[in-house]
Specification:
The chain is α+β, with helices and mostly antiparallel strands. It has helices at 2-16, 18-54, 102-110, 144-151, 162-167, 176-182, 213-216, 224-231, 251-262, 269-272, 274-312, 314-322, 327-361, 382-408, 412-418, and strands at 60-63, 115-130, 133-142, 157-160, 171-175, 189-194, 199-208, 219-223, 240-245, 265-268. The protein has 2 domains: 2-54 and 276-418, no CATH class; 60-272, no CATH class. It is built from 15 helices and 10 strands. Strands 2-3-8-5-7-6 form a 6-stranded mixed barrel, surrounded by 4 helices.
């Protein structure tokens, strides 16, 4: 019975100052709306940038680093036991960047339960011949099917088809930046020169655009067989093994294991993109900070409105306490008022936040550097809505708690005597 009475009194006080109530609720609604929209947009942007890197980056890359031998001939000598050897200007080992026993390594990786897929690759440094001018570049020899399956390669081919690369002998998909410099079209033939002076003709079957301009000015793609033919190497020649995992968080530990097991260099995606991940974390932190600040500001607005309501309703509070309402009852009335504002304003804020996010997500975002992106990126992560709802209730509760404590301590005798 008392609960119903407290609720009726709370509604009466809310409607008595309807304009102030609406303003307070609007403050919460606006804060939640902007909180949801800001986080959804920033998370969408982070996901876009992450995917731009992650889609084209293996979780683990195995390769053969050309380094000086850690053990020099003098180290094997027994003539000077316990002596320190100082050897300067050591030259790298005379070996190729080829991964030895690549086929056996690939079979072992394919049987690993942690591995989702494996894609071999050759990296060939070349010169693109444009008349008398040579442009430096890199041709990536790929397994087209594996590259499509693991790195959605076809999504970044803006003209032509990846199937043509697979089915057309001695063909190439040029980076869009290289193609513009060379002024070539699909179907044209180009000449490339390797570092040892070998010239090789290739047919252009498509253009590739990663969204990273500096890469698109250098990189192009051919099949593994084509790059092996360019280098004059056997079909077993592979310089890189790209690995995708089911769980990306295992990459650092598995990279160390593969390094020891296969006697190759191994680098994980976290190490290769540490600076990029730091940028994403900072952007997310700033988004949360701005959103929470908006909610706190709305909380202060509710606090001020309730404070003014208590000041104006001194007579009503005195009458309530004189007629038998306790300090706890008065406390409950004003907390109910604050939570009602928080719940109504928060619910509307979640709805408007979802609507505004959806509206932004429909706005065209057409940029040549990101051919796969058609609209502004938005993330509809339910976590943002849960955080917004919980924080709106907590903020409004605290905004109502302190004024309600003040109201519960009012002595009705002092108010009546003052009147």
């Amino acid at each position: 019975m008392k609960i119903n009475l407290i609720a009726r009194i709370s509604v009466a006080l809310l409607t008595a100052r309807l304009k102030q109530t609406i303003i307070a609720a609007f403050g919460v609604t606006f804060s939640i709306t902007m909180f949801i929209t800001l986080l959804s947009f920033m998370a969408g942007l982070n996901d876009l940038l992450d995917n731009l890197i992650l889609n084209r980056t293996p979780h683990i890359r195995l390769y053969n680093e050309i380094l000086p031998s850690p053990v020099q001939p003098i180290d094997r000598s027994t003539a000077y036991p316990g002596a320190y050897h100082f050897v300067k200007h050591i030259k790298p080992k005379n070996e190729l960047p080829e991964i030895r026993n690549s086929k056996a390594i690939i079979r072992a990786l394919e049987n690993d339960p942690n591995v989702r897929g494996v894609a071999p690759k050759n990296t060939v440094a070349v010169f693109y011949n444009v008349g008398a001018i040579n442009l430096t570049g890199v041709i990536n020899g790929i397994d087209v099917d594996a590259e499509n399956r693991l790195f959605i390669f076809q999504d970044y081919v803006v003209q032509g088809k990846t199937l043509d690369l697979k089915n057309t002998p001695n063909s190439i998909i040029l980076g869009i930046g290289v193609a513009k410099k060379m002024l070539v079209q699909i179907g044209d033939n180009i000449q490339i020169t390797t570092s040892d002076g070998t010239r090789f003709p290739l047919k252009v079957v498509g253009f590739f655009q990663s969204g990273i301009e500096e890469l698109d000015k250098v990189q192009s793609y051919a099949t593994l067989a084509t790059t092996q033919k360019i280098l004059g190497k056997p079909v077993s020649y592979v310089t890189d093994i790209q690995i995708k995992l089911y769980d990306i968080t295992l990459a650092p530990a598995l990279a160390q294991r593969y390094h020891t097991r296969f006697s190759t260099e191994a680098i994980d995606i976290q190490t290769a993109n540490a600076q990029f991940e730091t940028g994403s974390s900072v952007r997310t932190l700033i988004s949360y900070a701005v959103g929470i600040t908006l909610l706190i500001v709305a909380g202060f607005g509710i606090y001020n409105i309730l404070n003014m309501m208590i000041y104006e309703k001194m007579d009503s509070i005195a009458i309530l306490k004189a007629t038998g309402f306790s300090g706890k009852d008065v406390n409950a009335i004003f907390i109910t008022i604050a939570l009602t504002i928080g719940l109504v304003g928060g619910a509307l804020g979640l709805i408007f936040g979802l609507g505004l996010s959806a509206l932004i997500g429909e706005i065209p975002f057409d940029t040549p550097s990101l051919p796969t992106v058609k609209t502004y990126p938005i993330s509809y992560n339910s976590k943002f809505y849960i955080i917004g709802a919980v924080f709106s209730i907590i903020t409004t509760y605290l905004a109502g708690y302190f004024p309600s404590k003040k109201a519960s301590r009012i002595d009705p005798v002092d108010i009546i005597r003052g009147k």
